[in-house]
Amino acid sequence: MAKKKATQCSVVLDWLKNRGELTNRQAVTELNILALPRRVMELRDAGYNIDMTYRVSKNGSRYGVYTLQE
User: Fold this and answer.
1) Domain range enclosing 18
2) pLDDT tens across 8-37, in order?
3) Which of 36, 40, 48, 58 counts the highest number of beta carbons within 10 A?
4) Which residues neighbour 57 within 8 Å (Cβ) at sequence distance 6 or greater?
5) pTM of the model
6) 44: domain CATH number?
């Protein structure tokens, strides 16, 4: 199980480094990662500075966007 989490963390980290931003919806639909907040917490525990900000969609719902701060 730990290997799977490490792989998902590396996928999230690669996405953030190469694309800049990641939402929970992108993580589920494009990366097949269902627990993005958990992976982000693990990356933060490993020393990565990842911020999360809220945005509002056109229909008024809020969603979080994760970015890697270097």
Assistant:
1) 2-69
2) 999 999 999 999 999 999 999 999 999 999
3) 40
4) 63
5) 0.86
6) 1.10.10.10
